[in-house]
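Q: Please design a sequence for this.
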């Protein structure tokens, strides 16, 4: 037989197997790359200032109540009477008296952001608003800014107007200062955010006119998927300060004289200029789930494109709109029939509205029915056209609608636009609010934004994939009392914050647990602070309104050291720390683990010993007292540690030094409990012929008195210059106490079973040493003040000899 002929097919099979394995690995890598390229993006926080709304809560109320936030041009922008004229032919005039405005144009807390007053004068109000809303959005996400410093956080901002720089340039050239460029360049609108907050990810400003903020959002999602950043701020801002562009839009017949966006209505005759700012906080969905972030909604996909050659630079292009929507659906892996709502660009122009509805009809015409129509609305009918911030306003509206399970009404729709073929496909304009309930399938919406520069954007938004457990899990702990903290950069700001919380506590339905959890863990800790303790929302409101709280200033950058002192035997009581065990998961988990370790050391369960009515009395027996105290104090330490309180130095009183040593890493928890359980058992076995007592006098006075007494008594502990503990035989202790009392010196017997820290302990030393020598010791990682020497413990604390001396 030819062995070579046998080996040849075997080699071929081996090569084939290797090839298949290589292909499988390659396929796995490709699948991973594709998954990363299309990973959904989670929205975990948002902030906004829109006409009629200073925050998301106010914005939702405005939408839900079907309010129109348009008003006359305020006097801090321009003289309305000087510039208004109803005829679009009149030179230098504006055809409308109206717009959507955010108040307090000149107000800005420059000191809060560390900006000098001189620099703030040249700072574009768009930049100011952007700083404020970004901070609020990060707080809404429960992100403490200090944790983002020097991290890959991206900033993507849509911004297109430059009214303020035009005003500054009308000054005499001698008034131009060093801050004109940095205060007004679009690039620094994003760059200043990154600079002030310490972000090191991509930071850029985008100007595609009306689609700027959605294009920014698209780029932010791409950056997150490409791992360019791990967190991103995306949105847009617009401020209307000068009349020039309004004059321009009047001449172009773009503005509605009555100041209303009558989107899709027969009366549609132009848009109304508005201002505001919206920012959302983004993470890759997998990261948001892993970090237990509060996911508000999910961006499934997005797309951007350009009109290219059309009938005019500013004229919408129907085929391009169709293309961008189809591409966003494809990128999201979503079929058109899964979309239930479209937040339309919807400026309300006689030309643009039919083109937009026609594009929607081309994409969704065959996927919806009269029983399940596509619902189409536009936030511009409430707050006007925010230009560079228009798209983000639509995003915020849809996120809130998904959360509230309700589609707000679309305003100013009375007579359908006759140039729109309403019979072409099943479409509904919601003239009244409509329910939008969660069901078996996730709710999805599309948001469109089309720039007059020809750049289009479309985003596919999906409801959060599950009920968020982030806050509910941590806030559901049933505590009898709750700690509430607030902070601000100035006393005045803190007072204002207190007032806001009083209002919030009156209106909100959130639980005291949720309120305290968010305030304590999701806010930056600033210089001026307060804390209050309350059992309910009503009690917290009372604390704030009646000033029943503690206020202080933040500790300096080099705060004072913290010392932890662990108590010794005698501090035990029946039911010790039971409320902590019932209400504090960290304490409970640690104590449960100690109970597991002690199963082989004690003849009764630690938890029964502590909390069973039939067994609690046993805690006063030394054999149980010492391991129980060790476990409780160690669990207390872990609880303080979980709250961020770390000691700089440690000390333990008698038994307490064992816990201090364990915390410092001298020995492990398991070996520490073993050593203490042995100590307690051997002490319990000693003849009960000793006692201990406190003498409220100095060591010298006590020493003098003891010289005339029996040698059966000695000084056991020096607690302070006027607190000395003696230990010895019971009869001798009683006799010497009488002597102290005759001298007018106060005394007090301790609740112990033996004369600890005296020669009465000597019979147990040999057996204790055997166990102590089995322990694996390490040098302390935190300084410990030794009971034996009264100084910082040296290397000897990591030896069996030390613990025998200590005993």
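A: Design:
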């Amino acid at each position: 037989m030819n062995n070579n002929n046998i080996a040849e097919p075997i080699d071929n099979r081996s090569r084939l197997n290797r090839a298949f394995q290589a292909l499988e690995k390659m396929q796995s890598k490709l699948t991973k790359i594709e998954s990363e390229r299309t990973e959904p993006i989670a929205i975990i926080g948002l902030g906004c200032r829109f006409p009629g709304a200073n925050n998301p809560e106010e914005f939702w109320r405005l939408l839900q109540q079907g309010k129109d936030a348009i008003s006359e041009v305020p006097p801090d922008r321009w003289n309305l009477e000087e510039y208004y004229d109803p005829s679009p032919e009149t030179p230098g005039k504006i055809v409308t008296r109206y717009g959507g405005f955010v108040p307090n144009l000149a107000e800005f807390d420059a000191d809060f952001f560390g900006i000098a007053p001189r620099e703030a004068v040249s700072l574009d109000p768009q930049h100011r608003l952007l700083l404020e809303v970004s901070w609020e959005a990060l707080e809404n996400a429960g992100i403490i800014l200090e944790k983002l410093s020097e991290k890959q956080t991206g900033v993507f901002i849509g911004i297109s107007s430059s009214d303020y720089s035009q005003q500054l340039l009308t000054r005499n050239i001698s008034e131009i200062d060093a801050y004109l460029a940095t205060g007004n360049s679009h690039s620094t609108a994003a760059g200043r955010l990154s600079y002030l907050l310490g972000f090191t990810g991509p930071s850029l400003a985008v100007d595609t006119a009306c689609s700027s903020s959605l294009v920014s959002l698209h780029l932010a999602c791409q950056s997150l998927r490409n791992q360019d950043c791990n967190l991103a701020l995306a949105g847009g801002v617009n401020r209307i300060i000068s009349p020039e562009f309004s004059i321009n839009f009047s001449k172009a017949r773009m503005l509605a004289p009555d100041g209303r966006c009558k989107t899709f209505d027969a009366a549609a005759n132009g848009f109304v200029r508005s201002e505001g700012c919206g920012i959302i906080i983004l993470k890759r969905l997998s990261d948001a789930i892993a970090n237990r972030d509060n996911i508000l909604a999910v961006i499934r996909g997005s797309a951007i494109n350009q009109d290219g050659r059309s009938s005019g630079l500013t004229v919408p292009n129907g085929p391009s709109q169709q293309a961008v929507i189809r591409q966003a659906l494809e990128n999201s892996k979503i079929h058109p029939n899964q979309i239930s709502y479209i937040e339309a660009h919807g400026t309300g122009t006689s030309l643009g509205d039919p083109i937009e509805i026609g594009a929607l009809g081309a994409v969704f015409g065959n996927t919806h029915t009269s029983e399940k129509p596509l619902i189409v609305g536009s936030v511009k009918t409430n707050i006007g056209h925010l230009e560079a911030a228009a798209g983000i306003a639509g995003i915020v509206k849809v996120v809130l609608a998904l959360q509230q399970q309700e589609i707000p009404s679309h305003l100013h729709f009375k007579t359908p636009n006759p140039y729109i073929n309403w019979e072409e496909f099943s479409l509904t304009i919601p003239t009244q609010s409509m329910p939008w309930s969660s069901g078996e399938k996730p709710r999805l919406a599309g948001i469109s934004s089309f720039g007059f520069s020809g750049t289009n954007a479309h985003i596919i938004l999906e409801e959060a994939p599950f009920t968020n457990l982030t806050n509910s899990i941590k806030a559901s702990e049933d505590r009898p009392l709750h700690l509430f903290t607030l902070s601000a950069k100035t006393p005045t700001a803190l007072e204002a914050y207190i007032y806001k919380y009083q209002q919030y506590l009156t209106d909100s339905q959130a639980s005291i647990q949720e309120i305290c959890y968010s305030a304590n863990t999701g806010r930056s800790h600033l210089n001026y602070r307060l804390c209050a303790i309350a059992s309910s929302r009503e009690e917290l409101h009372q604390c704030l309104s009646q000033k029943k709280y503690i206020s202080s200033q933040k500790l300096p950058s080099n705060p004072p050291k913290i010392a932890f002192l662990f108590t010794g035997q005698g501090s035990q009581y029946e039911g010790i720390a039971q409320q902590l065990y019932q209400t504090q998961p960290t304490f409970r988990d640690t104590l449960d683990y100690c109970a597991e370790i002690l199963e082989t050391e004690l003849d009764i369960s630690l938890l029964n010993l502590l909390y069973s009515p039939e067994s609690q009395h046993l805690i006063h027996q030394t054999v149980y007292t010492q391991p129980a105290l060790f476990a409780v104090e160690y669990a207390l330490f872990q609880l303080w540690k979980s709250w961020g309180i770390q000691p700089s130095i440690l000390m333990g009183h008698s038994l307490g030094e064992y816990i201090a040593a364990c915390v410092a890493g001298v020995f492990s928890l398991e070996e520490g409990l073993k050593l203490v359980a042995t100590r307690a058992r051997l002490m319990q076995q000693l003849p009960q012929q000793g006692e201990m007592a406190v003498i409220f006098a100095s060591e010298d006075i006590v020493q003098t008195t003891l010289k005339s007494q029996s040698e059966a008594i000695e000084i056991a502990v020096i607690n302070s210059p006027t607190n000395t503990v003696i230990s010895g035989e019971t009869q001798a202790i009683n006799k010497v106490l009488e002597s102290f009392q005759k001298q007018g010196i106060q005394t007090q017997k301790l609740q112990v079973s033996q004369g600890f820290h005296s020669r009465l302990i000597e019979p147990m030393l040999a057996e204790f040493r055997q166990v102590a020598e089995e322990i694996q010791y390490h040098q302390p990682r935190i300084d410990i003040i030794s009971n034996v020497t009264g100084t910082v413990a040296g290397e000897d604390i990591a030896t069996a000899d030390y613990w025998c001396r200590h005993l």
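Q: Thanks. Anything notable?
A: The mean pLDDT is 91. The CA atoms of residues 546 and 804 lie 56 Å apart.
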